[in-house]
Amino acid sequence: MRIGIGHDTHRLQPGGPLRVGGVDLPYDVAAVGHSDADVLLHAVTDALLGAVALGDIGQMFPNTDPANKGRDSAEMLSLAYAQVQEAGFTIVNLDCIVFAEQAKIAPHRDNIRQRLAEILNLSRSQVSVKGKTGEGIGTIGRGEAIEAQCIVLLRPLSERYVANEVPEAIDPPGATMDEMDDERWSS
């Protein structure tokens, strides 16, 4: 099993809509960013990449690359998840939080969960999305920014975690696969 955590923050500016989790929300603010600035999809991408020690979204999709200007974050997430699968893992579940003061997540939660499930080829039961406010405090509370956090649990694709199927960067430190307990790595 592998666990990853992802976090992202974007400034908000007047305009709209606000894209969260691949869904355009009907609010009069929009996130500012190099790509489409989808704070939730960026946090999920970072959680996935981090779980298998493949870096982060900025390394995979640098904002210095003109190809990433305005890029759809759903495409970036799909490409990152393909790397995770190539490393030999699949998603067990995602648990996500979106922090926003005025853009309420609850009315859109089901659509966001459905879109995340579609992008990652999961069932909605594997995707949790919660919304929290800043209670009027800090950049979230003042409506200056939006943030998202995500934790992902991964399991090996195969019955047994096989070292030669996984990039060197994500081998467990301090032990060879022969020294690992088979049950620890089974699905």
Percentage of residues in helical conformation: 25-40%
Strand content: 25-35%
Tell me the overall shape. globular
Cα(first) to Cα(last) distance is: 8 Å
The SSE order reads EEEEHHHEHEHEH
Return the average pLDDT rounded to an integer: 87
Strand tally is: 7
Q: Helix- and strand-based class?
A: alpha+beta
What keywords describe this structure?
187 residues, alpha+beta, five-stranded mixed beta sheet, two-stranded antiparallel sheet, disordered C terminus
What does this structure look like?
The protein is α+β, with helices and mostly antiparallel strands. The chain has six helices and seven strands, in the order ββββαααβαβαβα. It has a five-stranded mixed sheet with strand order 4-1-7-5-6. It has a two-stranded antiparallel sheet with strand order 2-3. Strand 5, helix 4 and strand 6 form a beta-alpha-beta unit. The longest helix has 14 residues. The C terminus is likely disordered.
Helix-strand layout with pairing:
Blueprint: E1 2-14, E2 18-20, E3 23-25, E4 29-31, H1 39-51, H2 57-60, H3 73-86, E5 89-99, H4 109-120, E6 127-132, H5 138-141, E7 145-156, H6 182-185
Parallel strand pairs: 5-6
Antiparallel strand pairs: 1-4, 1-7, 2-3, 5-7
Structure summarized in a few sentences:
The chain is an alpha+beta fold.
